[in-house]
Design a protein that fits this description.
Number of strands: 19
Oligomer: single chain
CATH class of the largest domain: Alpha Beta
Number of domains: 3
Number of helices: 15
Strand content: 15-25%
CATH architecture of the largest domain: 2-Layer Sandwich
Helix content: 25-40%
CATH topology of the largest domain: Aconitase, domain 3
């Protein structure tokens, strides 16, 4: 996007600057037509493609549209497109493997070493850049905001609109800044920080808002850690999450396949450095958190905001704030098969899943491998890299040997057990320690009980056969 509205004299937030640059027109009712820089698609585009076909329309900007096979693909070794035998799932996969390709869209198909989860591949390939407006038919599109983009999920009808016009009607959301200050303790990662944030403000705490993450603790995070923060902004009800780009961002982006090169890189850097919140810019809401108060987190219920530190206990619904929360807690404990007051580190698990668009990057795998090295898993455990390139890098570093030696299963890239659309689910009543983003009822299979946590904590759970504090297991501590 090169045009956009002129800057005003008023202090503006990072969100304001990117939104304003992408306004095509605004109606009197507040609906705004936005230009979309990058449209990422996956198997969920079957119906949008059918809509275009019925209307005799074609994809407006194939050069700004990129496809991935991730949700419906199996992740076992040796998988191919032919491994997908369910007719509905195969039709969804064909929408990417065939229809999108026929439309002239670049697609990272099965067998392509770049294939992987859409929200992992986008940043990895340099498709995600500061200042872009990005959309995808998946709520966790917020991940891309970690690199200073404005990125959010859209519905099927909206996907069709973007495919046909490269624009999207939206209503301007409110803004929230969450400032993370202080120094994190040992074993505390970005996943622990976002779970602590959601536990504090609630699963509906940011509804109608764009969150900007700020503060010294955010600046110390790697780009991958910031992706974890932004990824789970949706679990707090937010429309998107963002981090202002800085030298950490620029170092991550530099040299990637779709990043600017040469003189274009220098011009881009000059523009990107303006994507920050101006001093005195106002937010609709401010939240502050001292990360020194956060320990390794784990969920106990059926919503990401039902989380406590691993050294805590399952809460008692009798102490809930109101009747609605009491009913929610009771329902969650009934589904999860837990009793109030149970120590979190006494809860046994049946399976461990390390993967998803939240925690499947090389940094995540390294942290888990550090905990696993020289130990053996007591329960079945899967490691599912976020992309083929991450899998190759992990293998070059020998991480796969560490996992396999400990009894973990080393799998191919994909969404896998995070969402279970590909049949990779557990049996009713099983309890899973998972690095994914949602612990909803039935998310990993009918009757399956999911506990969310960081990769290091999931690794600790696999080694101990129960939820466990990773801090005593950290090398050199």
């Amino acid at each position: 996007m090169t045009g956009g509205m002129p800057a005003t004299g008023n202090p503006r937030t990072l969100f304001d600057k990117i939104w304003d640059q992408h306004v095509v027109m605004e109606r009197e009712d507040g609906q705004t037509l936005l230009y979309v820089d990058r449209h990422l698609i996956h198997e969920g585009t079957m119906e949008p493609f059918a809509t275009l076909a019925r209307r005799g329309l074609s994809v407006r900007r194939t050069d700004r549209t990129f496809g991935m096979a991730d949700h419906f693909v199996p992740t076992f070794a040796g998988r191919t497109a032919d491994s997908v035998v369910d007719p509905e799932a195969r039709a969804m996969l064909d929408s990417i493997e065939k229809t999108a390709v026929e439309q002239g869209i670049t697609v990272y198909r099965l067998g392509d070493p770049r294939q992987g989860i859409v929200h992992v591949v986008g940043p990895e390939q340099g498709l995600t850049l500061p200042g872009l407006l990005m959309v995808c038919g998946d709520s966790h599109t917020a991940t891309h905001g970690a690199l200073g983009a404005l990125a959010f999920g859209i519905g099927s009808t909206e996907v069709a609109h973007v495919l046909a016009t490269q624009t999207l009607w939206q209503r301007r959301p409110k803004s929230m800044r969450i400032s993370l200050d202080g120094v994190s303790g040992a074993g505390v990662t970005a996943k622990d920080l976002i779970l602590a944030i959601i536990a504090r403000i609630g699963a509906q705490g940011a509804v109608g808002h764009i969150i900007e993450y700020a503060g010294a603790a955010v600046r110390r995070l790697s780009s991958e850690g910031r992706m974890t923060l932004c990824n789970m902004s949706i679990e707090a009800g937010a429309r998107a999450g963002m981090v202002a780009p800085d030298d950490t961002t620029f170092s991550y982006v530099a040299g990637r396949a779709h990043a600017p090169q040469g003189d274009a890189w220098e011009r881009a850097l000059r523009a990107w450095r303006d994507f920050h919140t101006d001093p005195d810019a106002r937010f609709d809401r401010e939240v502050h958190l001292d990360v020194a108060d956060v320990g390794p987190m784990v969920t106990w219920g059926t919503s990401p905001d039902q989380a406590v530190s691993i050294d805590g206990r399952v809460p008692d619904p009798a102490r809930a704030a109101d009747s609605a929360q009491r009913a929610s807690w009771n329902a969650a404990l009934d589904y999860m098969g837990l009793e109030p007051g149970t120590p979190m580190d006494a809860i046994e698990v049946n399976h461990v899943f390390i993967g998803s668009c939240t925690n499947s990057r090389i940094e995540d795998l390294r942290l888990a491998a550090q905990v696993v090295a020289g130990r053996s898993a007591r329960v079945p455990a899967w490691v599912v890299p976020g992309s083929g390139l991450i899998k190759r890098q992990a293998e070059a570093e020998g991480l796969h040997r560490i996992f396999r030696s400990a009894g973990f299963e080393w799998r191919e890239p994909g969404c896998s057990m995070c969402v279970g659309m590909n049949g990779e689910i557990l049996a009713p009543g099983m309890r899973c320690a998972s690095t994914s983003n949602r612990n909803f009822v039935g998310r990993q299979g009918k009757g399956v009980r999911t506990h969310l946590m960081s990769p290091a904590m999931a690794a600790a759970a696999a080694i101990n056969g129960r939820l466990a504090d990773v801090r005593p297991m950290i090398p050199g501590r």
